[in-house]
């Protein structure tokens, strides 16, 4: 291992050295082999490929706080659809999400109280009603002017306690 790697990251670079020894994914194509894009949360309890019985290379995975369909997610989906073989999108938020436990104001206040950081310049987009929010996010994808009208979009909520994916809605 290089001596220039910060100590805070030594464990991940050491793990990568071990990973490289058995690396076998170098021949995968950039396109989503199963034509799927998954929008899910950054929560570390979610392993999207395993949840859906997929393998590396099968899907494009977009993660953010709350699995929200933001401008950046829409930008990425446009690229994924037209350049990377995506023809269907699963929006997959989850139960027990931290983003569903506070209001926008509470999140800003909490960070300011704990860390003295003014975050008022950004929007966190918390989730008041998970099902209504999921339906709204599905509609945002389905109505985006740069995405094809026949793009299949579905939403389901992943239960972090059981591993079950619960279907909520589709665009069809």
What order do the helices and strands come in, and which of them pair?
Layout: H1 10-21, E1 36-41, H2 48-51, E2 59-64, H3 71-83, E3 88-92, H4 104-115, H5 130-142, E4 152-158, E5 165-170
Parallel strand pairs: 1-2, 1-3, 3-4
Antiparallel strand pairs: 4-5
Task: Summarize the entry for a quick read.
The chain is an alpha/beta fold.
3D structure, described in words:
There is one protein chain. The protein is α/β, with parallel strands linked by helices. The chain has helices at residues 10-21, 48-51, 71-83, 104-115, 130-142; strands at residues 36-41, 59-64, 88-92, 152-158, 165-170. The protein has a 5-stranded mixed β-sheet with strand order 2-1-3-4-5. A hairpin with a 6-residue loop joins β4 and β5. The relative contact order is 0.15. The mean pLDDT is 95.
- Rg for CA atoms: 18 Å
Which CATH class? Alpha Beta
Strand order of the largest sheet: 2-1-3-4-5
Report on the biggest sheet: 5 strands, mixed
CATH superfamily: Carbonic anhydrase
- What would you call the shape? globular
H/I helix tally? 5
Q: Kindly estimate the percentage of residues that lie in beta strands according to DSSP.
A: 15-25%
Helix amount, in percent?
25-40%
Number of domains: 1
The end-to-end distance, rounded to whole angstroms, is: 52 Å
Spans of 5+ residues with little confidence (pLDDT < 50)?
Answer: none
Roughly what is the average pLDDT, rounded to an integer?
A: 95
Give the CATH topology.
Beta-carbonic Anhydrase, Chain A
The CATH level-2 architecture is identified as 3-Layer(aba) Sandwich
């Amino acid at each position: 291992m290089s001596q220039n790697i910060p100590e805070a990251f030594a464990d991940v670079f050491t793990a990568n050295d071990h990973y490289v020894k058995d690396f076998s994914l170098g021949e995968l194509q950039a396109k989503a082999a199963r034509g799927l894009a998954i929008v899910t949360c950054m929560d570390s309890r979610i392993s999207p490929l395993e949840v859906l019985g997929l393998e590396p290379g099968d899907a494009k995975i977009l993660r953010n706080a709350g699995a929200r369909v933001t401008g950046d997610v829409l930008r990425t989906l446009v690229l994924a659809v037209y350049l990377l073989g995506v023809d269907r999108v699963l929006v997959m938020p989850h139960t027990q999400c931290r983003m569903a436990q506070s209001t926008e104001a509470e999140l800003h206040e909490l960070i300011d109280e704990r860390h003295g950081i003014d975050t008022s310049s950004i929007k966190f987009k918390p989730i008041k009603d998970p099902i209504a929010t999921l339906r709204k996010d599905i509609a945002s994808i389905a109505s985006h002017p740069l995405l094809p009208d026949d793009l299949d979009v579905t939403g389901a909520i992943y239960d972090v306690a059981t591993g079950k994916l619960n279907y909520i809605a589709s665009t069809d």
